[in-house]
Design goal:
The complex is a heterodimer of chains A (208) and B (185). Chain A has 208 residues and is an alpha+beta fold. In chain A, 24% of the residues lie in helices and 35% in strands. The chains are: A alpha+beta (208), B mainly alpha (185). At the A-B interface, helix 1, helix 3, helix 4 and strand 7 of A face helix 2, helix 3, helix 4, helix 6 and helix 7 of B.
Chain lengths: 208, 185
């Protein structure tokens, strides 16, 4: 049985979707005015849902897409083991090295970092972004073995927060733009390993 | 009623080689990724390419996802980035198409914030829709997101259910969606 201060959810949905006759809608409106907090919360949520539904595009994909996505799945050849985690260490920082003769002033505004581990070398170039308080990071992956650098997933995070995800190009390039300065973590997924670049500084000049 | 497997359970099954689990993930989030790409007014072929790239990234990342990863947000992040990358590629490869693109693409220029808001709304909705059972998800998609605006009778015929049950089912499914999105399911 319906409590006196509640209106059935279906009735509320019909009301907010204008599916009721004017007399029925007026009756629900009167009930809603007297309703308790739970009914008010439901009304607020339904309004938010209907507003969101009107604002976003939800479109059925082309018929052939599903099959293409299913073909992407390839069961592992061997039982999955724990992801191997490999830490890449800093091997070069242009901010800590003297600028070579002939380097143009504009280049001095960029900072180059190179990280290396047994699987890959990762070169990062930090440059001022379009906004003066933000930086852009361009990177390139150089596999040490015969593996491809294309299509790797690069995940950028800051503390526990995911910041962005980039996929490497055919040349192993990836980028992140408009980053507030600070320490970040970069993970690259290379076959069954995750290469971690921990707490790398997104800033043009090293701190004290 | 058996509750649908969580994203994390499906990811675990995929890691173990389960193709049906992958199919469920695709079924849950294919529309989200495709729709985000379309939010940028990409042609359907390009939006399909973005969707394939995003799911390829997911497949390659299966081993590295953590239990607290919100998969809808993860996929939305990739879709957003790839859609923007596609836009820039089109701009550079076909500079003569700039006028047309600027006219068509809300993500460029002053409407960028609006596109972001819609993207976040889409992610919010798809997160909830993805966590629903298949029948509820299909019902709500048909009733609320089909641009053709089908009637209750048409939806009933499409889903093979009595027309009289559409209204009550809709209410139950909406209530489930509300509880999911409010973190109570």
């Amino acid at each position: 049985m319906t409590k006196p201060d509640t209106v059935p959810f279906e009735r509320l949905a019909d009301w907010l979707e204008h599916r009721l006759s004017p007399a029925e809608a007026a009756a629900v409106a009167r009930q809603a005015e007297r309703a308790g907090p739970e009914t008010r919360r439901r009304i607020a949520w339904l309004r938010a849902f209907l507003g969101a539904r009107a604002a976003v595009v939800v479109e059925a994909p082309p018929p052939g897409l599903r099959a293409a996505l299913l073909r992407q799945f390839q069961p592992p050849a061997r039982p999955p083991g724990p992801l191997r985690r490999v830490v890449a260490a800093l091997s070069f920082d242009s901010a800590a090295a003297p600028a070579p003769a002939g380097v143009r002033a504009v280049e001095a505004r960029a900072r180059q970092l190179i990280f290396a581990c047994e699987l890959v070398e990762v070169a990062l170039s930090l440059r001022p972004g379009r906004r003066s308080d933000r930086l852009d990071v361009n990177g390139q992956v150089y596999p040490r073995g015969p593996g491809s650098a294309a299509g790797l997933v690069a995940r950028l995070s800051r503390g526990e927060d995911l910041v962005d995800i980039s996929l490497t190009s055919d040349l192993g390039e990836f980028s992140f733009s408009a980053l507030p300065p600070g320490p970040y973590q970069l993970e690259l997924f290379v076959e069954d390993s995750a290469v971690l670049i921990d707490a790398f500084p997104v800033e043009l000049n090293p701190g004290p | 009623m058996k509750s649908p497997l969580s994203d994390w359970e499906l990811i675990g099954a995929c890691r173990a080689g389960s193709a049906p689990a992958w199919e469920q993930l695709v079924s849950r989030y294919e529309r989200l990724v495709f729709s985000i790409a379309r939010t940028y007014s990409l042609p359907r072929d390009d939006a399909a390419d973005v969707t394939q790239t995003a799911f390829l990234a997911l497949f390659r990342s299966l081993g590295g996802l953590r239990e607290d990863t919100r998969l809808s947000a993860w996929l939305a992040t990739v879709a957003h980035r790839e859609a923007r990358r596609t836009l820039w590629r089109v701009r550079h490869e076909h500079p003569d198409a700039l006028d047309l693109l600027d006219e068509r693409l809300p993500a460029l220029g002053g409407a960028e914030n609006e596109a972001m808001e819609r993207w976040e709304l889409a992610e919010w909705l798809h997160h909830g829709l993805g966590a629903l059972g298949d029948r509820c998800r299909e019902l709500l998609l048909a009733l609320y997101f089909d641009p053709a605006g089908p009637s209750y009778g048409e939806v009933a015929a499409r889903l093979g259910i009595p027309v009289g049950s559409v209204g009550p089912r809709r209410a139950r499914c909406l209530e489930q969606l509300r509880q999911i999105l409010q973190g109570r399911a």
